[in-house]
Design a protein that fits this description.
Blueprint lengths: L2 E5 L4 H11 L9 E3 L4 E3 L2 H14 L2 E8 L2 E8 L4 E7 L7 H20 L3
Antiparallel strand pairs: 1-6, 2-3, 4-5, 5-6
Helix pairs in contact: 2-3
Length: about 120
């Protein structure tokens, strides 16, 4: 998986807000089970709930967009500063359902990486 990261020219205010948020964010509870591996994990809504209120408190928001087969995840700050990560969505089958599953998986993992939750 190829991962590309970019950022705004300045990120001082964004970095300060992310440091403050990192001190308050709690890891999500593992609330779902993978039937194939019999392992527990935090699903996408639980992952989002783990950071959203703290991020908003510090002027941060995360947006995720799909462009072709790329998932673009961006952390925006009220100052206009941002960081961004792009990752290829690679479904194991050429079906809409497989793409949706791969997209959800990639959304969860990029959100966890950018927000520091696991």
């Amino acid at each position: 998986m190829e991962l590309e990261q970019t950022q705004s020219e300045e990120i001082k205010e964004l970095a300060e807000a992310m440091v403050l948020a990192a001190g308050e964010v709690k890891h999500p509870k593992k609330n779902a089970t993978n039937p194939h591996f019999k392992s527990k994990y935090a699903d996408l809504p639980t992952t989002i709930d783990a950071y959203r209120d703290v991020y908003l408190k510090h002027g941060l928001v995360v947006v995720q967009l799909v462009s072709g087969s790329q998932l673009v995840t961006k952390v925006l700050h009220t100052s206009g500063q941002w960081i961004q990560s792009s990752a290829q969505i690679s479904p194991d089958k050429p079906t809409v359902q497989a793409f949706g599953s791969a997209l959800t998986y990639m959304r969860r993992y990029t959100l966890q990486a950018l927000t520091g939750v696991a």
